[in-house]
Design brief:
By secondary structure, the chain is an alpha+beta fold. The protein has a domain of 76 residues: RRM (RNA recognition motif) domain (Alpha-Beta Plaits), CATH 3.30.70. The protein has three helices and six strands, in the order βαββαβββα. The strands form two sheets. A four-stranded antiparallel beta sheet has the order 2-3-1-6, covered by helices on one side.
Length: 127
């Protein structure tokens, strides 16, 4: 089983468009279109998993550089995911030191200069 990366897709390209393109070249196990979480539209790339390695190689040779939806698509073997760094902070203030958002430090971190040596007192319930 081979996983193929298909890039430079038009944002209007659908899963059925990809299925129609790849189906004549071999058995498709799965298609995953990368979608933007906020807008719900395609991110311009997809992964096509093919059952047979020889069919996948044939699909790469046949479809790499082919025009689809007004764009020349890129088809190659997908590389395995590498460990990506975890997102830091809440996404605010990406240029701040250490990825910290407005307000500075991390949750739960405080200095004894700010609070003195006194222990924190439990809060009253809100109800």
């Amino acid at each position: 089983m081979k996983n193929l990366f298909v890039g430079n897709l038009s944002f209007q390209t659908t899963e059925s468009d990809l299925r129609a393109l790849f189906a004549p070249l071999g058995q498709i196990t799965r298609i995953h279109m990368a979608m933007d979480r906020e807008t719900g539209r395609s991110r311009g790339f997809a992964f096509v998993e093919m059952a047979n390695d020889d069919e996948a190689k044939s699909a790469i040779a046949t479809l790499d550089g082919k025009e689809l939806g007004g764009r020349n698509i890129k088809v190659n073997e997908a590389r395995p995911r590498t460990g990506r760094p975890a997102p830091q902070g809440s996404g605010h203030g990406a240029g701040n030191s250490g990825g910290r958002g407005p307000g500075g430090g991390r949750r739960g971190s405080f200095s004894t200069e700010d609070y003195g040596e006194a222990a924190r007192q439990p809060r009253e319930p809100r109800w």
